[in-house]
Amino acid sequence: MIQIRPFDLLAINENGRYYYCLALSDQIMAGGQLVYAFYYTSESVVTAGVLLSDHPQGFHRIVDFIAAKRSGSLTRIAAKVTATHLDNVQFFRQDGPTFGLDRTWAIWDREGSLVRRPVELTVDEWSYPIFVCSLHSSMCEQIDQRWHPSHDRAGANNSFKPNPLRGSA
Q1: Residue among 30, 29, 39, 32 nearest 4 (CA)
Q2: pLDDT for 8-22, tens place per residue?
Q3: pTM of the predicted protein model
Q4: In what order do the strands lie in the sheet containing 33-42?
Q5: How far apart are CA 66 and CA 86, in angstroms?
Q6: Running DSSP on this structure, what letter comes out for residue 99?
Q7: What is the residue extent of each domain of the chain?
Q8: E strand residue ranges, the chain
Q9: Are 75 and 45 a contacting pair, CB within 8 Å?
Q10: Which of 70, 75, 88, 71 is nearest to 34 (CA)?
Q11: CA 131 from centroid of its chain's CA atoms
């Protein structure tokens, strides 16, 4: 099985297409890794130059690759990729407000420390990556949908809605 390291450029073969992401961390949060997922798919594996040319578009996510590793669908395209401009995550937001009397959100820093518990999220906070570990298949669905954390704000009115894209074991 592939041992994923920060700045490994990865391809995942899912449903006959290749999906791409750049690992940005060692394992965090129950075995997941912070990645930058590219809005790019292909029928065969492409080179790092194709993915990193111009201004790649995508989103940040914490992803667990264990199922992709076990199935043999994960490929390392390149190691030690120079793409520090994509490693710009400082904060995360939780998936939905907590239940209970206060119904607050939580904002976490990259080290996993609680920063604040707002009652409502600001526009900037809606764009923070979600502090939850998802399966690689969920990331692939989100790439197909060109999902971004800020899309969760539309129609949410700061109320809790379960994330339908979160994978299940």
Answers
A1: 32
A2: 999 999 999 999 999
A3: 0.83
A4: 74-78, 9-14, 17-23, 33-42, 58-64, 133-135
A5: 23
A6: P
A7: 9-88+132-153
A8: 9-14, 17-23, 33-42, 58-64, 74-78, 91-93, 107-109, 114-116, 133-135
A9: yes
A10: 88
A11: 9
